Amino acid sequence: MATVHAGMTMSLDGFVADRHGGTARLSDPAAAGGSGYMTELIRETGAVVLGRRTFAMAEDPDWFVDNYEFQVPIFVVTHRPPDVRPAQDENLTFTFVTDGIASAVAQAKAAAGDRAVKVIGASVVRQALRARLAGELHVDIAPVLLGAGLPLFGDPDLEGIVLRRIAVLEVGTFTSLRFALAE
């Protein structure tokens, strides 16, 4: 059965996008395609759950088919699916889930088989953690300070979640933290 890994890259001061919504300063070429780190993430991922905002960051939704690192089924949590469906192929498909994070994660787990489900996007990561749907939290720390922007955490409903560190990796200039969520 698929495991669920929630998380993403954030600045050292806890933001996943700057005050203008940009993420360029959070990118690291050493962690990008071709690295052992990225190759392993791609190999272990069987499905992805995204929030609508993360999905919309691609100005052209058809971009995902040839460019997104995870060429797997993608489940987008949204209140309103797009009017025009993005391009898909035999590997990368889109399902727009309108009945919440639990439904999206359940569908992604079924699609992923024995591989991991990645939950990506600040809002859906928080939702998955609050609902105790994730077994692991993965946070890659970029060595930058953004000062303001979209925080990954800062949600009082996350209080009481207990984490157990399972890995700390150096990936280029980034630090990758892996935690198991205690039962």
Task: Explain what this protein looks like in three dimensions.
This protein is of the alpha/beta class. The chain has a single domain (4-181), classed as 3-Layer(aba) Sandwich (Dihydrofolate Reductase, subunit A). 22% of the residues lie in helices and 31% in strands. The chain is built from 5 helices and 10 strands, in the order E-E-H-E-H-H-E-E-H-E-H-E-E-E-E. The chain has helices at 36-44, 52-56, 63-67, 101-112, 122-130; strands at residues 4-11, 15-17, 45-51, 74-77, 94-97, 116-120, 136-142, 150-151, 163-171, 174-181. The protein has an 8-stranded mixed sheet. Strand 9 (163-171) and strand 10 form a beta hairpin. The chain is globular. It starts with a strand and ends with a strand.
Summarize the structure.
With 183 residues, the chain is α/β, with parallel strands linked by helices.
The CATH H-level homologous superfamily: Dihydrofolate Reductase, subunit A
The CATH class assignment is Alpha Beta
Count of separate DSSP helical elements: 5
Number of domains: 1
Enter the CATH topology name. Dihydrofolate Reductase, subunit A
The dominant shape is: globular
Helical content (DSSP H or I, runs of 4+): 10-25%
Tell me what portion of residues adopts beta-strand conformation.
25-35%
Second rung of CATH, namely the architecture: 3-Layer(aba) Sandwich
Order of helices and strands: EEHEHHEEHEHEEEE
Count of strand segments? 10
pLDDT < 50 stretches: none
Oligomer: single chain
Features:
183 residues; alpha/beta; Dihydrofolate Reductase, subunit A; two-stranded antiparallel sheet; 10 strands
